[in-house]
Amino acid sequence: MAPPHPHSGLGPRTARRLLAAFGLPDAVFSAGLPALLQVVPEPLARELAQAPAPTSMPRWTPAEHWLAASTDHALLTLADPEYPQALLTTRTRRPCCSRSAGSNC
Length: 105
Known about the structure:
Elements: H1 12-22, H2 25-29, H3 33-37, H4 42-49, H5 61-68, E1 73-77, H6 85-90, E2 97-101
Antiparallel strand pairs: 1-2
């Protein structure tokens, strides 16, 4: 199960919509308020347009440590061409991110 997201109103369905509209997560956070308002409701768009709160940063620390542990580790989003096709075709609730180890992403 994925950790709860620091932004209220941002569940898997909304996250997929944002990734589809903007691509990688960095692009979502740098999109700006006018662009975000085209995709999500105003309260969430305002939250996403602001810098992340320092209290939300520690919840990503385990993933960052896992990524740094090996050059074979990767974090893939729905926008990545290496995202496992089996997850796209066989699951109705696709995870927004997938961790991968090794060259068979």
